[in-house]
Amino acid sequence: MLTLNDISKNVIDMQYEVRGALVTRAGQMEKEGRTIVKCNLGNPQELGQRPLSYLRQVLALVTSPDLIGTSIKDQNGNEVIHADLHQRARTIIDITRTVGRYTESAGLEYVRRQVAEFITRRDSIPASPDMIMLTDGASPAVKSVLQAIISSPKTGIMIPVPRYPLYSASITALGGQAVGYYLDEEHDWETNVAEMERAYSEAKKRGIDIKALVVINPGNPTGDVLPEHDIIDTIKFAQEHNLTILADEVYQDNIFNGNKFYSFAKHVLELKADDVSLFSFHSGSKAVGECGLRMGYMEMRNIPTEVYDQMVKIQSVSLCANHIGQVAMGLMVTPPRPGEASFTIYDREYKELQRNLEEKAKLMYEGINRIPGMHTAEIQGAMYAFPHLDLPAGKTDVDYCTTLLEETGILFVPGSGFGQRAGTNHFRTTLLPPKAELASMLSKLEKFHKVFVA
């Protein structure tokens, strides 16, 4: 019989805190009839966000192609699916024949072309479909790059702290070394080259062979958006130390308060940093809230052909990303255009999705900073806040979040699960519950906090 003693130590040591012990306890409480306010995970549709009609309608047609061209009307006699979406579905089926088959390992060529064209529109730079791979969301793409890079127990990957646990968990599972560099909380969680240099130098003294640097922009769990000078400084740091950059940009569509997203791809090209290998990741899980469709892509720059071939080989072990997710990624990067029949509905729904998220970011920011002994930086993007907690001596953010869950049903993730400076306490919360529920949650949180710290 297989026992725990037979399991890889790397797997046992791996931790993924956003689905850790508190989430298990919350599940038990739900079975007991308790109401749980799930602020632990960026899972938009779980918390009521509606999918975009355009994307779902085209997917409905390509999964049931006999319906293409069929009139489908609502109770008022109006066409549910506009003619231009029927035509889109017909074009997709003409290209791919059926979504029930395996695709080439790198992904459908026509979708990779669409992604390349999207990058060119976004950044006004050339992009090659031959350096794009379609993946089951961004996470498998990240893990495949780490799998390729981590070649020994001494291989180091620099990751931001606070970190998204995908990185620390994957590095541990693959037997590498996570080298944390702290983000600057006093300056809206920006990167700091001096801090990167500190982390790099200390790791090198321990014999760590640092090969890559991870940047998450917009930030998870911090909700920051990196200014352009941070992007440039980070590329120059990577260039100086011969580091590959992993640019996690899955929240690039979720930008608030007039902030602006700057891609690493654009700046690597503009800086002529041809000696910096770059892997950039994007996903439909956050951009349009379709976590369950598992749609993502990875773009590679300054990667030799033989390295690209190794990345495709890793993907080929799983044959390919799921076909429906690949089609959905193509739809995400080629939305309806003005003049098309479906544009009005799409435009209204997409703007409402973004407006609603920005309004909730404002509500969260103001609500948190209204509570004495708790504060958060400006929520500039993504869908999270990472508030700082002032707690009584001897109390930790794990104590705080555990007691909060038991007494109120509010589920946060303790800041220690993401990493933080010694002696500080935080928690991560999503912005995703409906506004009325979010306002109620903040009211309960304020009452709880006053009692907990008394």
Automatic annotation (TrEMBL):
Listed CDD domains: AAT_like (cd00609)
A biological-process GO annotation: L-alanine catabolic process
Molecular functions per Gene Ontology: pyridoxal phosphate binding; transaminase activity
Source taxon at top rank: Bacteria
Keywords, comma-separated and alphabetical: Aminotransferase, Pyridoxal phosphate, Transferase
UniProt domain Aminotransferase class I/classII large: residue ranges: 90-442
InterPro entries the record matches: ALAT1/2-like (IPR045088), Aminotransferase_I/II_large (IPR004839), PyrdxlP-dep_Trfase (IPR015424), PyrdxlP-dep_Trfase_major (IPR015421), PyrdxlP-dep_Trfase_small (IPR015422)
SUPFAM superfamilies on file: PLP-dependent transferases (SSF53383)
Summary of subunit composition and partner proteins: Homodimer.
Assigned protein family: Belongs to the class-I pyridoxal-phosphate-dependent aminotransferase family. Alanine aminotransferase subfamily.
Protein known as: Aminotransferase class I/classII large domain-containing protein
Species the sequence originates in: Candidatus Wirthbacteria bacterium CG2_30_54_11
